[in-house]
Amino acid sequence: MWRRLAGLLFVFAAATAALWLLSSRLSAGQARRPLRFPSDLEELRELAEALREYERQHRGAALALFCAAYLYKQSFAIPGSSLLNVLAGALFGPWTGLVLCSALTSVGATFCYLLSGTFGKQFVVYYFPDKVALLQIKVEENRSCLFFLLLFLRLFPMTPNWFLNLSAPILNIPVSQFFFSVLIGLTPYNFICVQTGAILSQITSLDAIFSWDTLLKLLAMAVAALIPGTLIKKYSKKHLKLDEDKHAQLLNGKKSL
């Protein structure tokens, strides 16, 4: 068990060092301001503009840093990927950003799956026995339509995405089904975040938020995000064995009174 922990710490340290080296290289080429995650609209616009300027001269390095930061967060289940989705929309545009984030989300979640399967199974079972047992029951009850169960859990999360990534190898979920369920199931969420970043990067004042162009884009985002969820919801009622009200609180770390 301790050997597995040491192996995981080694992989984490190596990935952290690699990300730091990439970040240092990009920061050296962009000395006007330090690289950091944006905390408001103005910082988001400044960071996106700084990276656009750098990308024109060092496109490969800028893209590599973004991909590395995204995969780092996804692989080690570190919060903050949604902020990178917003940044992708501001930096790469709505459609390129969506394709990029969807691919990185799937690859990063699969890395998390593989790391958990190699190093973390015992730790996940030890610290979250009830959650793992409950998910195992749901997976076995719906083994014949497992892929649609995974889509349902991504679109209507009864448990956090990071925990599903960590527990998937314990539940004997095939890596191929896992990968494509993340790719498809999280696309609506990625779409909203990326589109938000693209819209915010173009807004120059509060008045622009209430323009017809912005409002129509926001309406289109809402409709596009609702369609896949509605379809999966209808399918789940007919084919999946779920008891959302009974188990959702436990899977999210809450107990009913």
Question: What's the helix and strand layout?
Answer:
Layout: H1 2-29, H2 41-57, H3 59-75, H4 81-92, H5 94-127, H6 129-141, H7 146-155, H8 161-167, H9 175-185, H10 187-202, H11 212-239, H12 244-251
Describe what you observe in this structure.
By secondary structure, this protein is mainly α. Helices cover about 80% and strands about 0% of the residues. It has 12 helices and no strands. Helix 2 crosses helix 3. The radius of gyration is 20 Å and the shape is flat. The mean pLDDT is about 80.
Report the strand count.
Answer: 0
SS-based structural class? mainly alpha
Oligomer: single chain
Count of individual helical segments: 12
Query: Nearest-angstrom radius of gyration?
Result: 20 Å
Classify the beta-strand content into a percent band: under 5%
Mean pLDDT: 79
First-last Cα distance = 36 Å
Extract low-pLDDT stretches: none
* Estimated helix fraction: over 70%
Overall spatial form? flat
Summarize this entry quickly.
With 257 residues, the chain is mostly helical.
Task: Describe the structure using short key phrases.
single chain, 257 residues, mainly alpha, flat
